[in-house]
Fold this sequence. Notes:
Layout: H1 14-23, H2 25-44, H3 50-72, H4 78-99, H5 106-130, H6 137-156, H7 162-194, H8 198-201
Amino acid sequence: MVSPFGTAPTTAGPADRLARLGASWTWFLGAAVVTLVPGVMALVWPDATLHVLGVLIGLYLLATGAFRFVMVFGRRDAGERLPGLLVAVLFVLGGVLCLRHPLQTVAALSLVVGAVWLVSGVVALYGAVAAEHLPRRGLVVAVAVLGIAAGIVVLALPAESARALTRLLGLWLVLLGLAETALALAWRSALRGAGTAPSRIRSGSRS
Length: 207
């Protein structure tokens, strides 16, 4: 749900290497897979215990936070990186909370996941609307709106049982994963259409 069309810094060193990695379409595809896989697992294994679901969602949030942290380095300047960094921290914090035993309840998991999706979706939507030169803006906005909708549904319609919550989260994870996959493929198309490396494309675009 983070816009992938940021600007990679030109400085050398670890930050530059992270920027190149975070700017590649394969990195965004990896983030999409991290979302899609637990969604599929939840749908094919709806009878998972609440503890297992909490661990699964917690690991998903932690992994997504790590992917988004690297993506932050693809942003053009510090002002553009801050919202993405805050979202990455939010995902990591949500993952830690889901892995804590005292929070292994339906209400707690719904609250944590719904809040993470809602906030990250709002941040992504703001970035998509505010961007001046954003390839595939409509797709980025669609992914952001989907994240907002997922957060609202999970928060407003909390499941009454672990089985219902598993199905609900599994469905939204699959939808988000497919949307993020489409976004990664769109980014690959934008790179190939420009006929240049990601770092060079980003010299004229922002997230």
